[in-house]
Design a protein that fits this description.
By secondary structure, this protein is α+β, with helices and mostly antiparallel strands. It has helices spanning 3-14, 20-61, 76-84, 118-121, 150-156, 196-199, 207-213, 233-241, 253-256, 258-296, 298-306, 311-342, 344-355, 376-402, 406-410, and strands at 65-73, 89-104, 107-116, 131-134, 145-149, 163-174, 177-191, 202-206, 220-227, 249-252. Helix 2 (20-61) crosses helix 12. The chain is elongated and about 110 Å long. 38% of the residues are buried.
């Protein structure tokens, strides 16, 4: 492409047209591309933020790897020692897990009951740093204290010092029939993991009290394991499996929460496709803009042809014009999308206050605040796609311009 083709293409882009409607269509195409690119960058950043926040919050309350038995681990001290010897394991702790009903006055709520040893639980999950009231080490064997999630405590209407009744799911046989096993616990702490699933459904007691309540003897449900790199948990799980007895099994956080991350990834891919189509529609509006521009400039094209301009030069002029429109639209969209993605934590609260609504309810979503995680690789891909679509949209109108015959164009001038 020669210098004069670029120069004329730039001049045609900013020149005042005889038909103002063409200028309007050109501006609309440019703004359409800009809005499409802005929306695509912002939505992908928000989806990336969802993935990052969900992962962080899940790993904040869940172990990286869990080793269990069928249905329980009887020889857990040996298994704990074998797991702790693994190279990438940074911590391990036994636990008891079951379900139960918590009652206080007329309030009844189901809960996941986890028996832990507070002295070593911090090796796996740092629940102590999430305590709103009380202390985790208040869980001492024989005192039957319980620590509740903040939302669970709110639903029951209890505070630290109140006494709740825990009803175990399996009953005991008495002369009067099967009676549920119940035990009174004193609320000694309330934690907030900032994850509704745990805050509304998790209660913790001492592992000795759990073994006694659920009649496990010295057995435990399993062992929770923390590793130095959560992304390598599947590989480390395979290493751990080689040293486990046949009746034991191991699972990792990627298997336990695969549904959540798969759903977010599918949503991200679908949003990318849908919003790319929006960009494509805006880019192909350039076709109508350039067709009208070619019609408006037929006499200019004819004069250029009589002065020696080749058909390829005419085609290049209009490709420059269309591509420049797409480039400006893409640039505006990238600047706007990056700015919005980096400041979404300010923009969204402002919109919520303005409209008087809250977009993400804690009762429904894992994340209650709209997150954003801008990936420059996504920005690069979106920019390239928008520019390529703009370039493709200019080919046909530019080719039509190169086919204009000077004699036909100047006949009625």
């Amino acid at each position: 492409m020669h210098y004069f083709e670029i120069l004329l293409g730039l001049r045609y882009t900013r020149a005042k047209r005889r038909n103002n409607f063409i200028s309007f269509i050109s501006l609309a195409s440019m703004l359409g591309i800009a809005l499409g690119v802005l929306a695509l960058i912002t939505v992908l950043s928000v989806m990336n933020g969802f993935q990052k926040d969900i992962r962080a919050k899940l790993l904040g309350g869940a172990s990286h790897i869990e080793v269990g038995g069928n249905p329980q681990l009887d020889n857990w001290p040996q298994v704990l020692a074998a797991v702790s010897r693994q190279e990438h394991v940074t911590g391990a702790a036994p636990y008891v897990f079951s379900q139960g009903l918590l009652t206080w006055e007329s309030n009844v709520r189901g809960a996941m009951i986890r028996g832990i040893d507070p002295a070593i639980e911090g090796r796996v999950v740092d629940v102590g740093s999430h305590m709103q009231q009380g202390r985790l080490d208040s869980l001492t064997p024989g005192k039957f204290n319980i620590v509740l999630g903040s939302e669970l405590a709110r639903q029951l209407g209890v505070f630290v010092g109140d006494k709740v009744v825990l009803v175990a799911p399996d009953g005991q046989v008495t002369p009067a029939g099967v009676m549920p096993r119940m035990k009174q616990f004193r609320v000694s702490g309330i934690f907030n993991m900032d994850l509704f699933e745990y805050d509304a459904g998790m209660a913790m007691i001492h592992i000795k009290d759990a073994q006694r309540l659920y009649r496990l003897g010295d057995a435990v449900t399993g062992i929770r394991v923390k590793v130095d790199d959560p992304d390598r948990a599947p590989a480390i799980r395979q290493m751990i499996l080689r040293d486990l007895p046949k009746e034991a099994y191991a699972t990792d956080w990627t298997l336990q929460n695969a549904t959540y991350f798969r759903a977010v990834q599918i949503e991200k891919n679908m949003m990318f496709i849908i919003l790319t189509l929006i960009v494509a529609v805006a880019a192909f509006n350039l076709v109508s803009t350039l067709v009208m521009s070619v019609t408006d400039k037929q006499s200019d094209i004819a004069i250029l042809r009589t002065l020696g301009a080749s058909p390829s030069s005419i085609m290049g002029i209009f490709m420059v014009q269309g591509t420049l429109t797409g480039f400006i639209g893409t640039l505006l969209g990238v600047v706007g999308g990056v700015s919005l993605s980096l400041n979404i934590d300010v923009v969204v609260p402002w919109l919520e206050r303005l409209l008087g609504i809250h977009f993400l309810s804690k009762e429904v979503y894992f994340v209650s605040e709209l997150p954003s995680d801008l990936h420059w690789g996504d920005v690069g891909v979106i920019t390239v796609i928008a520019l390529l679509l703009s370039l493709l949209a200019t080919i046909y109108p530019s080719w039509r311009a190169s086919r204009v015959q000077p004699a036909e164009a100047l006949r009625y001038e």
